[in-house]
Design a protein that fits this description.
Blueprint lengths: L2 E5 L3 H8 L28 E3 L3 E5 L6 H12 L2 E2 L9 H7 L1 E4 L4 H6 L1 E3 L1 H33 L11 H12 L2 H8 L9 H12 L4 E6 L7 H17 L2 E6 L3 H4 L5 E4 L6 E2 L6 H12 L1 H4 L1
Parallel strand pairs: 3-8, 3-9, 4-6, 6-7, 7-8
Antiparallel strand pairs: 1-2, 1-5, 9-10
């Protein structure tokens, strides 16, 4: 446990901040969005209390990702991808309070927020890198043909690298010439397998991790494997996780706390009580005969 509680500013503070009477510097006419103001008071959400694994569950627009972003901003947790914010976001985050245990500078440095955009960027980087390697390979094969049958005489030291390539082409096969002068492709698996590998590579021991819908790109079996990986990381490697998700495979994790952001007031629930999970249950139950 690193983060124990996180408390939002509350409706009174929000309205005071936005009031031109209480805050004369507020120029209301300049803005069309006050995000993240006026989201959580209507949900009667004040304080979140965390376990080693805590889930934020809710439909689109329920505030799951906003809460993760506020926690990351307030705790200054490292993150990669850009995120939705407004001119008011930093002030709102600064007004949030938290209670932490053992959240040292070293642990804070190791901790991070991981979003779907981070995973997708990683997958795109792999593709772009391998596309570049493939193009370089084609260029080298063309260069090999040219060098192998070209006569060359060194005229100065500036021609040394050219001479080496010419000699390589004459003594090597085309495939060996390419291997000598270009890096190998990075092995790429399916998007789901690569995405799962991203989590196992970037999650290390002794840190706090904020995960935004990590189930994206993962088939059911990989979601179950990710659930087991996160459970082991929390149990044996001193990690704490706060996860926004819809996945029943993750929500079924043992010894976790689940906040239902669709409920008013927001409250902790069992995973079997969540609307999304009940929808899956009802669907499969209605098709029971097809399975039997």
């Amino acid at each position: 446990m690193y983060l124990q509680e996180f408390t939002l500013p509350g409706a009174g503070w929000e309205e005071g901040y936005l009031s031109p009477v209480d805050n004369p510097e507020m120029k209301r006419t300049c803005y069309t969005s006050f995000y993240p103001f006026r989201i959580f008071p209507q949900k009667q959400l004040d304080t979140l209390r965390f376990e080693p694994v805590t889930f934020l569950y809710g439909g689109n627009g329920s505030g799951k990702t906003t809460l993760l972003n506020l926690i990351a901003e307030r705790l200054q947790v490292k993150r990669g991808a850009r995120y939705n914010r407004s001119a008011f976001f930093s002030d709102y985050a600064a007004a949030c309070r938290y209670e932490a245990l053992r959240l040292t500078d070293e642990i804070r440095e190791q901790s991070r927020m991981i979003t779907s955009d981070d995973v997708f960027d990683y997958l795109l980087d792999l593709r772009c890198l391998n596309d570049g390697v493939d193009q370089r390979r084609e260029d080298l094969l063309a260069e090999y043909q040219e060098e192998r049958y070209a006569s060359f005489r060194m005229k100065s030291l500036d021609d040394y690298e050219k001479l080496k390539r010419n000699n390589d082409a004459k003594r090597m096969s085309g495939s060996n010439y390419v291997k000598q002068h270009v890096m190998a492709n990075i092995p790429v698996k399916s998007n789901g397998q690569s995405a799962f590998g991203f989590f196992t590579e970037h999650i290390r021991e002794n840190a706090l991790y904020l995960l935004d819908e990590p189930e994206n790109s993962l088939a059911a079996d990989l979601q179950m494997e990710l659930s087991q990986f996160l459970e082991n990381a929390a149990r044996f490697y001193h990690c704490q996780f706060i996860i926004a998700t819809h996945s029943p495979f993750l929500l079924a994790m043992k010894h976790c706390r689940i906040y239902d952001l669709d409920a008013v007031p927001v409250q902790a629930k069992r995973w079997t009580e969540l609307e999304n999970v009940r929808t899956y249950f009802d669907f499969f139950n209605s098709h029971r005969a097809d399975f039997e």
